[in-house]
Specification:
The chain is mainly β. It has strands at 3-7, 10-12, 18-25, 34-39, 46-51, 58-60, 68-73, 78-83, 92-98, 101-102, 106-110. The protein is built from no helices and 11 strands. The protein is globular, with a radius of gyration of 13 Å.
Length: 112
């Protein structure tokens, strides 16, 4: 059974950091590009970052460039999103995506 489980979200103050993790089970991440998406209250889901199957190429939406870093560990079947200098507008549920598969998300709230 294919499963993606995100973790690492929480309530933090502006300027703080969080590291999100996505654990895959039921299949190997090897060979797949992986993306992180987010959905803020009342807004559509949007792409945040993605990483190629070999980790050589990454993409970030403009609003997170220089603050977020995506990485992967195929040996551990894990994907990460390091988020630094968080802003209130980063508040959202963050989802891991691989092909047709989605996790249930982890909530990130940035508030003072």
């Amino acid at each position: 059974q294919v499963q993606l489980v995100e973790s690492g979200g929480g309530l933090v103050q502006p300027g703080s950091s969080l590291r999100l993790s996505c654990a895959a089970s039921g299949f190997s991440l090897d060979g797949y590009a992986i993306g992180w998406f987010r959905q803020a209250p009342g807004k559509e889901r949007e792409g945040v970052s993605c990483i190629s199957s070999d980790g050589a190429d990454t993409f970030y939406r403009d609003s997170v460039k220089g603050r977020f870093t995506i990485s992967r560990d195929n040996a551990k079947n894990m994907v990460y999103l390091q988020m630094n200098n968080l802003k209130p507008e980063d508040t959202a549920v963050y989802y891991c995506n691989i092909g047709p598969f989605w996790g249930k998300g982890t909530l990130v709230t940035v508030s003072s």
